[in-house]
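queue> holo job accepted (zinc ion)
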Amino acid sequence: MKNKNGLAIAITLIFSSTLFSQNINDLKLKDYHPISIYKTPQSDIKKAKYPIIDVHSHDYTDTDAELDAWVKTMDEVGVEKSIILSYSTGKKFDSIVDKYARYKNRFDVWCGFDYTGLDKPGWQKRAVEELERCYKKGAKGVGELGDKGLGELYSDPTPGYGIHIDDPRMKPLLEKCAELRMPINIHVAEDEWMYLPADSTNDGLMNSAKWKVDMSKPGILNHDQLVATLENAVKNNPRTTFIACHLANCCADLSKLSRLLDAYPNLYADISARYGELAPIPRAVKAFIEKYQDRILYGTDMGTARTMYQTTFRILESTDEHFYARNLFNYHWPLYGIGLSDGVLRKLYGENAKRIFKK
Ligand SMILES: [Zn+2]
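queue> job finished
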């Protein structure tokens, strides 16, 4: 007993001495975790104000118990349905559909494109056939496609390196999606700071140091070139519905996405996994989402934790100021609630998705 107490005291002393004897000159940026000093309103939003269709989720569960727990969380936080972007075809796709079949009304599983044998004759025909097969198995859309500069890498079993979304070889697939009324969720490029030098001037350094895009790779397209591939595909396939996920990675300059949304009625965008990037500029984001309130969709892309959903509600619904969510976002900057109005929230959370997916 005595020893145990002694140990506890020793541990406390060591711990507090590291806290209080911290030499500020040795403090690393990555260890700087400030706590807000402001005594301003702190919202605790447990459930979304309106029913949610989460258009950007993934196959996060391995067991029946995990899936049951996820559905329970969805019920608690107000998510009616989650779209599982499987980016897979073949056996993998089928197994994911089968896994979620127990909760048919709560999940839709979208497929990928199959790039197997991309360089061999007859690839387009085979890829279209596989798309039709996935459609019959239950795929209501395609995604997440993803191109970070070297081609369509998000695909299981075969990544499509060397082929971009506007490549003429993609045309039959994009047309088939229009015919089958399958929207395409697509990731192009990365956020701005991942292209900037990882130095003392980089505003997103906490993330960009880790996620930096290596532009020295031969043939790699830069941010604007990748957004241009999306624009070409959207322009040349007006009957196909595209959802640019993560706001087309244009958070640092939303005017780039505005221009595309103004020009192409078949383009939509999801806000998944960009809450940490949007919350530092709540007024600009509020104006943007209000202007494009029929075109922007709610998504998460950040796992299944209850607190994850609740943090997105706080950012979208509240007007809380200067708070941190270091468990979800790695940035050093504080966050601000965007305070969307009821009518806009209703559309963003579910009504837009219902309208688009019914088409
Ligand atoms: Zn994703």
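queue> The beta strands are 52-57, 79-85, 107-110, 142-147, 151-152, 160-161, 184-188, 242-244, 267-270, 296-297.
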